[in-house]
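Task: complex structure prediction.
Instruction: return structure tokens for all chains below.
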Amino acid sequence: MRWFGRKQEEHVAPALLSEYLDSRLTGRQAERVRMHLEACERCREELESLRATVALLKRMPVVTPRRSFVLRERPVAAPRHMVPAWAMGAAASLVLLVFVAVVSLDVGGVLSTGGAPSPKDSFTPSMARLEGTQTTLSAQEATPDSGQESLMGPPQATPGPAAPSAGPDGQVDRGTAPGKESDPGKAPDAGSADQAASTAGGSTPTAWRYLEGVLAGISAVLIAATLWMVKSRRGTVQK
Amino acid sequence: MTMGQPPHVFTCTTHQPLPVRSGKGDFYCFNCVVEEHQSQAYNLAGRILGDWNLAEDALQEAFLSAYRAFSSFRGGNLRGWLMRIVSNACLDMLRARKARPSVSLEETLEAVGADFTISPEQSPEEQALTGELGKVIQDGLKGLPEEQRLAVVLVDIQGYSYEEAADISGVSLGTIKSRISRARAALRDFLRQHGELLPSQFRQSK
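Output:
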């Protein structure tokens, strides 16, 4: 705020004059304005014109409402939803989170190559072991297939259950048996494991796709519902 | 202006009690709250909107919002809380009308005008304020930016303190000070232009 007073041509800042008019200035500040006003005709005139304006405003008549605004009946609780918007938002994020987790597990190959319960376990130590047993695996021509399966999960998954007895499916089934502690190092045992898993695990890749689809659908619906609830409330509730 | 009224006010005589619960857990009769503040709210809305029909619509909307959002009132200054909702409703209405000016505010203003009745016991000055002068002042208010208009209506017409006006407008005290000062200067110039503020009115007071 610009102060005044050093030179004769400087005047009281408008905001200060306005406050002076409302007797909001105290002590030294009020005193300095008063001193300046005594010496400065222009500021005095400014003050008096503002005083006259405020006097007119203060005497504006109070208008009586033509009707009462008392609420005749308890208003319908329209914007109050069965579930509050924040809960809906939380549910949406939760489902979305599960969806993302499932997809990333799937893409990361944990679900389709199986074995390890968490991504960390499956990637670092077992990969190292895989390298160690490369020879045994490649002898069975297992590596190219299982590698492809984990990289290109979705395209290969669809024909899988359609032809359960086909050769490459054995590899797919072995991998997708969930929760099974199948050590990659025990490659020679793979043959018997395949047979055990092929009956039950044949439909698993589609089941995962199905689950992903359902999760995506649910989260989309929940997100849409949340947005709608927030939008419908914004019009009525002020801060 | 009954500001320091205790909570739990149920003085229902003209209506059914309509209990509402504040965020602090106190019960109020919402309609008693309405009855206590509606006149002031109506005048605030009317001065901001420059139209008493619009003011009724805005008030209706504001009281409904207040009822629904009553749990966001956490004790303290109920009047300030309510007037903030009312002024927000008015500003929203002005913005909506600006966005789609199908019915211009000018037209409604002309059509409605100031519908005060001049009573015989009013002084000549009061009669002027209800009549022609009142209309010029309302026009002057209309020419102000909305936030300045709100500030000067709250402080100079309705008599709120700077602090309360800052609270209602949701801005700092410094902002309110500068808005009031600008609004007063602009209104002074406007009234001078329209011959309602003659130099003789204030020169003599030297």
